[in-house]
Amino acid sequence: MTTFITPTTTVTTDSEPVSEPTVLSTIQQQRDQRVVLHGVSWQTYKLLLTELGDRRSSRLAYDEGVLEITMPSDRHETNTHLLERLVDVLTEELDRPVKCFRSTTLNRDDLQKGAEPDSCYYIQSVSRIVGRTIDLDRDPPPDLVIEVDISSPSSRKFQIYQSLGVPEIWRYRKNTVEIHQLQDGNYVMCQQSPTFTFISTSILNQFLQDAETQDDTALIRTWRRWVRDRLQESC
């Protein structure tokens, strides 16, 4: 049995696991929406990662037999890049070592879970990862993950990040940013960033609102001045 539901496409099977060719065909046919496939084996998921390679726009998330494929829109990518630039300025002005892995695949064979964030950063634990390919069977998860929800929710990925132990997520949805912190195994929405303690959701959203009427260069210049002012005040 195969069922298609829009705007999210769901593919299920009552008999055999979904094969790699079936998934590849589905990815090629869909644009700017979310596809959910049930009955996908961990082996098929790993083969897909190899077959699709790194130079693609789709994001894959796998959770014990369920494969979610998201094709980001232009607006999605624009907001992701803007949030990345805000983080880049923060780490530069704070002189914090950092390593950005963008949409690298984060998975654990023992958990049979994997996801590709819109962007991710090692900051507090950067010394444990610099110069190496990420292997979550031995390495810590990223300290900060960025997720941008435009037409597709990232709820399934939150469950995966929870299992992987990602401590902080910045989630953009409905034109605002939420900060989620992992506490006692669950994500709790908070007003301040655990990584950048003087950064609040209200400040982030103020600048994101300004981004609607400014070009990126002007916005980042203003953001950098604001960060420097806050650092001077704290001295």
Textual characterization of the structure:
The protein has about 240 residues and is of the alpha+beta class. It is built from six helices and twelve strands. It has helices at about 20-30, 40-50, 75-95, 155-165, 200-210, 215-235, and strands spanning about 10, 35-40, 60-65, 65-70, 100, 105-110, 115, 120, 145-150, 170-175, 175-185, 185-190. The protein has a six-stranded mixed β-sheet, sandwiched between helices. Helix 3 runs parallel beside helix 6.
Structural class: alpha+beta
Strand order of the largest sheet: 1-2-4-3-7-6
Number of helices: 6
Proportion in helices: 25-40%
Which range does the strand content fall in?
15-25%
Number of extended strands? 12
Along the chain, the helix and strand elements come as EHEHEEHEEEEEHEEEHH
Mean pLDDT: 87
- Span of the ends, CA to CA: 64 Å
Low-pLDDT regions: 1-9, 11-16
Radius of gyration: 19 Å
SSE layout and pairing:
Layout: E1 9-11, H1 20-29, E2 34-38, H2 42-52, E3 59-63, E4 66-70, H3 74-93, E5 99-100, E6 106-108, E7 113-115, E8 119-122, E9 144-149, H4 155-164, E10 168-173, E11 176-183, E12 186-190, H5 201-210, H6 216-234
Parallel strand pairs: 1-2, 9-10
Antiparallel strand pairs: 2-4, 3-4, 3-7, 5-8, 6-7, 8-9, 10-11, 11-12
Helix pairs in contact: 3-6
